[in-house]
Amino acid sequence: MEEMNLSLDDQDIYYHVMEVHQTVHSQNVNGKQKKTLLYDIFLIIVLLTGLRSELMEVPRNIVTLEGKSSDEIYMTCKSDYQSRLKWDLHKNNDTRNDVLYNGYYLRPDAKSYCTVIADDPGKCYLRLNNTAEAAQTYICVEPGTLLHASAELIWITESNPICNDSSTQDLVNLTCSIEFRGNWAPTMEWKEQRNDGEEVLSVGVNTVTVPNHRVTSTLVTKVQEGSRNYSCSTKFDISGKSPYTTATNIPDYNRVWTASVLPKTQDETVEGSPPNEMKDTGLIASLISGILILIAIVLLSLTLIIQFSKRKTMQKKMHEAIQAENVSLKDPDAYETNLNPVDFYKPTEAQDTETYRTPGPV
To answer: Within 10 Å of residue 190's Cβ, how many Cβ atoms?
Structure first.
């Protein structure tokens, strides 16, 4: 059999069929070589058909959300080769492929989430329910050739990632987490947004991925001077695609969460002063101000105590004077018992002694 001018992929198929052909022809049954014209014709037909067949429709990677009211989740596959297509699947954390649909029957444990639509020759669609167990790799296979195509279904439990801000005055501490099912885990990217632009962060970022379950990413860094925001983007990256998947489209999912972090307070400084000297100067000034305030409070307290003491002494003297005056009003004779009548009329030094006469007989 002469070789034909074929492409590289066609040559692989051609040599594969020829190798099977030579192997069968070399078998001996009861000492006679097994070779029939019908078998040669069959091999030629398979070879030529396989070389010219093509998958006109192939499955695409899909992401779906829990609770999304839609049953339109399809894995499509169609070939121009008029034969029954079959589907394999690659389950999560498995090392081999399992038969999902053999061209005639659907495996029993898949009937709860999968329906086969094969209404035309060479066409076989899968209609999938929006459930976690449907999230896996689906592989369309064309029997009799080496053609196959595969794609991922990823199921996400929440529409948006769950994010928390546990930052303090001096430390930025942000966390985002998302739950998923499937063989393709989403990625999380942190960015720092400033007035002069933004920067993708790698220092201080810790991401933990649990296959077929959860992705958690944490950003921990010091608070910087100046106003800035931090954002976490959750999306799918081609680098995370499963090696069992031939579909090259990136699932349509992108969520961004942004946190605003208060800037660090800048110390008032004198132009040209080194940062350490500025901080020391401010600390000393604050200490001196505190001491002066304390001294002022002590002096004010002493002044108030002295004034209060003087006031109490004055009130005591006034009280004694009032008591003495009350006694004199109640007993006026207390000041006249020892007085002589003559003394009563005795003039004072201010009176004129020449006009003074002592009383006598007339």
So the answer is: 22
Do 27 and 92 reside in the same domain of the chain? no
Is residue 111 located within the same domain as residue 35? Answer: no
Q: What is the pTM of this model?
A: 0.60
- Residue-wise pLDDT tens digits, 102-133: 999 999 999 999 999 998 888 999 999 999 99
What DSSP element (H or E) covers 255? strand 254-261
The amino acid that residue 360 corresponds to is: G
In a domain, 299, yes or no: no
**How many domains does the chain contain in total?**
3
Q: Does 59 lie in the same domain as 150?
A: yes
Q: Which residue has the tokens 């999306």?
A: 235
Domain region containing 44: 8-52
Q: Are 184 and 128 in contact (CB under 8 A)?
A: no
Per-residue pLDDT tens over the stretch 146-163: 789 999 999 999 889 999
| Pair 95, 181 in one domain | no
Q: Is the dihedral of CA 27, 33, 36, 40 positive or negative?
A: positive
How many of the other CB atoms lie within 10 Å of CB of 69?
A: 5
Task: Decide: 219 and 205 in contact? Cβ < 8 Å.
Answer: yes
CA–CA gap between residue 104 and residue 76 (Å, rounded): 17
